[in-house]
Amino acid sequence: MIVLYSFSAAKVNVWPIESYTLDWYRELRDDRDIIEGIKLSIRVGLIASAIAIVLGTLAGLAIDRYNFPGKSALRFLIVLPITLPGIVTGVALLSYFTLIHWEQSNWTIIIAHATFCVTLVMNNVVGRLS
What we know:
mainly alpha
């Protein structure tokens, strides 16, 4: 429905759509801030995914194949970001970065996203190996 409404000429969505236009896409193309935001999102997503794939796969292999002290605690800590509401994890990471005097940047965004994604990768790896 959202894609369909994106072609509506009306400024307020009504049903049925009375007329269609590409004006919204022309405005999108000409808005540099939105284009830069899309580029940043793609960059963050690709880098965070690469980090999560490496760390999540290694963690999954270690948890599945080896017995070591603290194994359940490690798994709990890795899974914790996905069990908490996203806002709690975000505020906790922001507090941590502030505590260690690490300036907010693209890297803090990447680390935050990778922290969440490592859980997803690790759970899939452990599940497939089991």
